[in-house]
Amino acid sequence: KAGVTQTPRYLIKTRGQQVTLSCSPISGHRSVSWYQQTPGQGLQFLFEYFSETQRNKGNFPGRFSGRQFSNSRSEMNVSTLELGDSALYLCASSLGQGTTNEQFFGPGTRLTVL
Amino acid sequence: GDSVTQMEGPVTLSEEAFLTINCTYTATGYPSLFWYVQYPGEGLQLLLKATKADDKGSNKGFEATYRKETTSFHLEKGSVQVSDSAVYFCALSGHPAGGTSYGKLTFGQGTILTVHP
After folding, report:
1. Tell me: the pLDDT tens digits for B99-113?
2. Which H, E and C letters describe chain B, residue by residue?
3. Using CB atoms within 10 A as the burial measure, which of A36, A55, A98, B75 is most buried?
4. What is the DSSP letter of A39?
């Protein structure tokens, strides 16, 4: 079974631009979660989508948004980029139901904001 | 809210040494607990999990026991190898029956492990 894929793997943007990241979950998984990883803040939860609906949201400004499509693929958008948005963005997929929320991670998208 | 605290790193060991990485958590209800590992330049891999009190998760020689009385989930391995060098993250997820944290993983700050030959 194919794992979680993320595209692109690397991105370089300048301040003020916007960016869209894509995540394809494991087949059969209905939940996609997004995380930001930085050396200073560690791994922080952005949001989770389940069956095309945002089910959970972390403490990030409204510049960070996402969506999920009917095939469970998800996109994350960051508008008006700031230098502090430079990070590794990880998405994870899971069944989204059941006793454990076992999440499987993709390789991440490395975003650099100049 | 939910939180996870891991022991301060980095941890440096010689090959075949015993490893313990401490993890304690704060959460309401009965969370599921996980250990993830991250190798350089890669995403996170699930190492092991436990879903209820006294469960022991194990994989690749690593073990961790869900201790509700001490709210802990310490990672152990009897004999580490150079290939175990990585960053280890303890994490929790809420129970599906309660709260809004079910679809969200809360992570500890990570512990860098370096194993020398």
Report:
1. 556 778 999 999 999
2. CCEEEECCCCEEEECCCCEEECEEEECCCCCEEEEEEECCCCCEEEEEEECCCCCEEEECCEEEECECCCCECCEEECCCCHHHCEEEEEEEECCCCCCCCCCCEEECCCEEEEEEC
3. B75
4. T
Name every chain B residue with its beta carbon within 8 A of the beta carbon of A96.
Answer: 103
- The three-class DSSP label of residue A74 is strand
More confident residue, A96 or B79: B79
Give pLDDT tens digits for A42-82: 999 999 999 999 998 999 999 999 999 999 999 999 999 99
Which of B34, B95, B102 best tests the A interface by mutation, with the highest count of A CBs <10 A?
B102
